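ok, trying the design again with the full structure, not the truncated one.
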């Protein structure tokens, strides 16, 4: 069955464009033009993911997200916020609202689809794939192999886990502290610069065969797996 995505956006041309692109990528699409309609639609038929615009009439996207999180039946429903705001502080605030991810307009269809698949996959572990992909990068979790543009990449165990974490959250920025917690474990007594050392090794390994740098350094914030813009 096709995954159902609820698009909550008041700009009709953008809704049309999103519907066209998402349907072409194998999703079913439902629509809501404001927050109230979105909440009604979710109550009626729960989607697999919600694409939620930040700027909506009546009830803001942020408020819709909070209400989705408050209701027991939708607490874990994947939500991606769409926004025109670009700075990293807003990005973090968006995630604090309970959104699973955050995407800044204008965005590419491939980026949107990658993030949608990632949030849906995380919400439905039974549908977990054995291969994680981003851009020309792929990680086979069963065979424990990584390749870029079909060329094998050899990673140490820490770099492997680091990349695996980034591949589960494409485009999302993580602070050094968050990476230490999630990749090394909460009990690890390590210094922040340990993260920098392993990021450097990972970046070197990923870029060895040429190609764009896929690890974005966000000054005084952290790192993301992202096409450097
Ligand atoms: Ca809007």
């Amino acid at each position: 069955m096709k995954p159902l995505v609820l698009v909550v956006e008041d700009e009709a041309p953008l809704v049309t464009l999103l519907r066209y692109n998402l349907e072409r990528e194998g999703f079913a699409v439902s629509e809501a033009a404001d927050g109230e309609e979105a909440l009604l639609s979710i109550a009626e038929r729960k989607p697999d993911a919600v694409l939620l615009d930040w700027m909506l009439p009546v009830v803001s996207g942020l408020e819709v997200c909070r209400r989705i999180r408050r209701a027991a039946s939708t607490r874990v429903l994947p939500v991606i916020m769409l926004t025109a705001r670009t700075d990293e502080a807003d990005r973090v605030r968006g995630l604090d609202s309970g959104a699973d991810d955050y995407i800044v307009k204008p965005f590419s269809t491939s980026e949107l689809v990658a993030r949608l698949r990632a949030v849906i996959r995380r919400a439905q572990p039974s549908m977990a794939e054995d291969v994680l992909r981003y851009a020309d990068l792929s990680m086979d979790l069963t065979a424990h192999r990584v390749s870029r543009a079909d060329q094998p990449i050899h990673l140490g165990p820490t770099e492997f886990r680091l990349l695996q974490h980034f591949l589960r959250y494409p485009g999302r920025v993580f602070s050094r502290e968050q990476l230490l917690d999630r990749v090394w474990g909460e009990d690890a007594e390590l210094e922040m610069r340990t993260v920098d050392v392993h990021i450097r090794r990972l970046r070197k390994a990923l870029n060895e065969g040429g190609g764009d740098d896929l690890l974005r350094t966000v000054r005084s914030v952290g790192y993301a797996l992202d096409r450097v813009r």
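Keeping the full-length input from now on. The domain at 131-225 is CATH 1.10.10.10 (Arc Repressor Mutant, subunit A).
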